[in-house]
């Protein structure tokens, strides 16, 4: 996978859109996980696990962490959906989450929510907004992000 840089006027002034992957990297009605690094306020880098669901032209992003136990949902890599393919599911406990809202509908965390991550599709790339990610993660994993600063910003 070769993420590319995308620019778009929908990116908030001074904000950064991180290209996570291309739309074509996630088939419609599927979900995929990304193991990234986030830069915290103190400058340290921390794991940032993201799950993206694609439904046609719509994309939904959540932190890949169950609200009840703090673990990843995909106990088998990239197995995020329930057998019907219409909910996110914890692979260990079977908790079910609504695709569009991240609300837990059934399971030990019923009534809680996955943490949403704002996504935007820019030039056919799925980009994450509102987070600060470490760029060019240099490990053996295929996940890697690039960013596009709003260089036209005046202030
Ligand atoms: S870790 Fe929360 S339902 Fe499985």
TrEMBL record:
Source superkingdom: Bacteria
Instruction: Please report the stretch or stretches of sequence annotated as the Rieske domain.
Output: 18-128
This chain belongs to the protein called: Rieske 2Fe-2S domain-containing protein
**Species name:** Xanthobacter dioxanivorans
Q: Which SUPFAM superfamilies match?
A: ISP domain
Alphabetized GO MF terms: 2 iron, 2 sulfur cluster binding; metal ion binding
Which keywords are on file for this protein? 2Fe-2S, Iron, Iron-sulfur, Metal-binding
Q: Which InterPro entries match?
A: Rieske_2Fe-2S, Rieske_2Fe-2S_sf
């Amino acid at each position: 996978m070769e993420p590319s840089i995308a620019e778009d006027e929908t990116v908030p002034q001074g904000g950064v859109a991180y290209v996570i992957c291309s739309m074509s990297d996630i088939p419609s009605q599927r979900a995929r996980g990304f193991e990234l690094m986030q830069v915290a306020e103190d400058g340290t880098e921390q794991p940032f696990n993201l799950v993206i669901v694609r439904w046609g032209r719509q994309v939904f992003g959540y932190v890949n962490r169950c609200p009840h136990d703090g673990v990843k949902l995909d106990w088998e890599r990239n197995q995020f959906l329930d057998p019907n393919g219409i909910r996110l599911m914890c692979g260990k406990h079977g908790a079910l989450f609504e695709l569009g809202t991240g609300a837990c509908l059934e399971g030990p965390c019923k009534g809680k929510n996955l943490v949403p991550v704002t996504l935007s599709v820019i030039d056919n790339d799925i980009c994450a907004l509102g987070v600060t990610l470490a760029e060019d993660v240099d490990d053996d994993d295929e996940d890697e992000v690039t960013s596009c600063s709003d260089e036209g910003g005046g202030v």
